[in-house]
Structures are given as structure tokens and as C-alpha cells.
Amino acid sequence: MSVPDSPAERAAGRLDGWAARIRSNPAQVAVSVLVAALLAGGTWLAAQAGGDWLQSTRLETRSMALTVEEVRHLYQDQAPVALDLALLEVRADAFQDASDAVTSRGFATPASRLAAAEAATLRKTAGELRAGLQQAGSSLLSADYERGDHGYAVSSRLADALTLTGADPQGVQDAVADGDARAAWALRLAAMSVVAAAAFVVVRTAGTRHRAQAAMQPSSAGPPDGDDDVGLAPQPWQERTRAQRLAAAVALVAWLLLPVLTAAQLVLSSGSARDDAESSRRATTITGSLLASQLYSSFALRSQQEQVQLGMLSLARQFVAVGDDVPGQPELAKADSAAAATWAQVAGAMTAPPTESDGVPAEVVAMVTSEPADYDRLLAAQHEAVDSSQRRGDAANLMTLGLLLAAFTATAAALARRPGRAGTTATTTAALMAATALAIGVVAVVRSLA
Fold first, then answer.
1. Residue 235 located in a structural domain
2. What pLDDT is recorded for position 301?
3. How high is the pLDDT of residue 81?
4. If DSSP states are collapsed to H, E and C, what string results for 190-257?
5. In a domain, 227, yes or no
6. How far is CA 143 from the centre of its chain?
7. What are the phi and psi torsion angles at 269 (to 5°)?
8. Please, are residues 23 and 149 in contact by the beta-carbon 8 Å criterion?
9. Residue 109 in 3-state DSSP?
10. pLDDT at 86 over 50
11. Which of 89-93, 131-135, 178-182 has the lowest mean pLDDT?
12. Strand partners, 146
């Protein structure tokens, strides 16, 4: 009656069966092809990710150019003349109110007639200016943006204009997301290649040890040698002499380093490409923010200057009235003073910075309202992206050097199979090259994290 195998013995038997299958030449070919295919797929996906990130910079540049042009057209071409038109109408109302305050009592004075004439002149000027601007295609002066106080909804016009520009900020985000997704899959494939190579070595080594222990038993006949090894994957456990096993072990280390260093090189090069694209997009954002904020600030400053000029005009009329006793000047001065107070409210509404509640995208709001402190923050982030790209790029170059050394190690290990001093020298050289490749890989990773 036979005693049933223990769980450990059954597991060892299964491991021996797996090892027996993967020691065959077809298994070596399959593992080698699988590792090569995974690395090739990861490299292709990493290249596609780099293309997506590069495309995001093109889309960002185009989107920023269209956005800044709309901001320029509004704050430089349309809003200033709309501001002038609103000022004419506000002053016309103020002079008409001054005239009506007198004529409502049943009589007219030279001052009331002068104020009425001034109001009519200003309204005529405003009407002609409006007609000319509307004929020229000023969209801000349409009825959709008129306010009850003679002002215009500048921010609402900006929101509507941005929807028609063709700018595609969402496309930029989608391109970056596509690149990130492909880079993540590239990393997965590279990691799978490392796992496949390591699994082949682990299972083969463990199975070899189990068979060696079984061969020491008297009843063990040992497995057949099988076909000659094709040598795609170094297998030191099959070598007969110590020198050959050592040379094969060095070659195996180099064989394992190839997928490991390739995976690391993919990660670093992809990270460098992503950081490079991010630095480019941030530089574009900084440039666009500078231009947009300057255009808005210039428009707001013009409004403030007109307020000051209107206040000075009121004071000047009072001085003229005191010095020369010109008829009607006190009334006109009061009208200009009232217009200045009203104008401050109208101009304040027209020059208010855009907000998301106006329908303006958050990134455009940030551009228009940006200040020097924001530029410092954006510039610091852009510099960090540049530095990170350079660090990872340098580390990727080091990884490439490590890959070359690992490949040369395999060649040197093949020469190490020769007997005598030549084989020993080749083995030592291959070991040094493998150690150097590993050290370069470690240094590259450390530098990328610094």
C-alpha cells in the first residue's frame, strides 16, 4: 500500500513538470519572443504617447493664439469705443437733466438752453458714432449686450466670442490624457516583460534544484537530456563545468538586465517627453496670460483716465465761471460733476474683470486677471517642468548606455565559454560590464529622482 504524497511533494512535482516543459527549446523561443514583443509594444506605445503630448502643445498654442486674439479684439478694438459711446450718452443725460430742472418750472434760461444744446450735440455725436461702429461690425454694440445705464456687458460678449473662436482647450486635455493612458500601458507591457523573464529564470532554477535532489536518490533515473540548447536564454544550470556555469550566469544577468533597463528607459524617456510638453504648454500659458492681462489692464486704465478727465472738466468749468462770469458755466459744471458720478458706476461695470458666472472659462478668467505673483508661480512651475524633463532625459540617456553595456555583456559572455585564460578573461570582462550596466541603471534612477 503506497503512502499518498504530501502537499509539498505534490507542489514540487508540479514545479518539476513546469520546469521540464520550459527547459525545452520551444519554451526558450516562446519566452524570448514574448519578452521582445512586450518590449516592442511598450516602445511603440511610448512613442505614441510622446506624439500625443506633442500634439497637446500644438493644440495649446493654437487655442491660446485664438483666445488672445479674441481678448485683444474685444479690449483693444471694441470695448474702448463702446466706453466712449457710453460716456457721450451719460453726459448727454446729465446735461438734459440740468436743462429739464430749469424748464420744468415753466421758464427757460440761457444756462438751460445751453445745457439742452449741449445734450443734443452729445446725443447726435453718440448716434453718429453708434451708426458708424455698427456698420463696421462692432458686435459689442448689439442690443444683446446693451445695459440700462448706457453701458455694455463686455464680459458677456467675451464669453460669447470665445465659444465661436475654434479654440479647443478640452482637446488639449484629451491629448494629454491619451498620452498618459498610452504611457501607462507602455509601462505595463515593459513590466510584464520583466516578469516573464524573471518567471522563466525562477521556475527553471527551482525545477533544476528539485531534479538535482531527486537524482541523488537510488531509484532516480533522471530526465533525458533532450535536444541541444538553442541558447536564446542563458541557462547556467545546464553547464557542466564551474567556469561555464559562471560565464552563463553572467550572461543570464545581462539577459535579465535587458528588459529591466529597457523598461526603466521607457519610463524615463516618457517622463521626459511629458515634462517637456508640459513646460511648453506652461510657457504658452505664461505668454498668453501676460498679453491678456495687459490688454485688460490697458482697457481698465483708459476708463480710469476718462473718469479723471471728466472730473477735471467739471472743475475747469467752475474756475471759468468764477474768473470770467461766463453765463451757464456753473450749470454745465454741475452737469459734468453729476455725469462723472454716474460714469464711475457705468465704467466700473464695463471694466469689471470677467468671471465664470459671466460664462467665461476659468482658464481665461485666470489669464485676464493674472498678476505678477501669478507669473512667478507659473514661471516656477514651468522651470520645474524643464528641470524634470532634463533630469529624466539625462537619466534615459544613461539607461541607453546601460543597455548597450548589457548587450555587449552577452557578446563577451559568449566568448567566455572558451577554455583557458581567454575564457576567464572574457568572463571577468563580462561580469564587470554587467556590474557597470547595473550601476549605471541605479545612478540613472537616482538622478531622475533628485
1. no
2. 92
3. 92
4. HHHHHHHHHHHHHHHHHHHHHHHHHHCCCCCCCCCCCCCCCCCCCCHHHCCCHHHHHHHHHHHHHHHH
5. no
6. 39
7. -65, -40
8. no
9. coil
10. yes
11. 131-135
12. 152
- What is the rounded CA–CA span in Å between residue 338 and residue 341? 5
Task: For residue 379, list its beta bridge partners.
Answer: none
Q: Give me the chain's average pLDDT, please.
A: 82
Q: Are 288 and 70 within 8 A, CB to CB?
A: no
User: Residue 230 has what pLDDT?
Assistant: 43
Task: Decide if 300 is inside a domain.
Answer: yes
CA distance 152 to 160: 14
Q: Are 79 and 321 in contact (CB under 8 A)?
A: no
Q: Which amino acid is at 161?
A: A
Range of the domain at 197: 10-211+241-449
Place of cell 515593459: 190
Cα angle value 190/256/429 (rounded, 5°)? 140
Share of the chain above pLDDT 70, in %: 82
C-alpha cell at 118: 449741449
pLDDT band (50, 70, 90) for residue 16: low
Q: Which residues are within 8 A (CB) of 369 and not within 5 positions of it... i.e. 6 or more apart?
A: 293, 296, 353, 354
* The one-letter amino acid at 393: G
Write out pLDDT tens, residues 226-270.
445 545 566 666 666 777 777 778 878 888 888 888 889 999 999
Neighbours of 252 (CB within 10 A): 22
CB-based contact 329:278 (threshold 8 Å): no
234 part of a folded domain: no
Closest CA to 24 of 214, 230, 250, 255: 230
Euclidean distance between CA atoms 214 and 422, whole angstroms:
36
Output DSSP code: residue 152.
Answer: B
| Residue 435 cell numbers, joined | 556590474
Q: What total of structural domains would you count in the chain?
A: 1
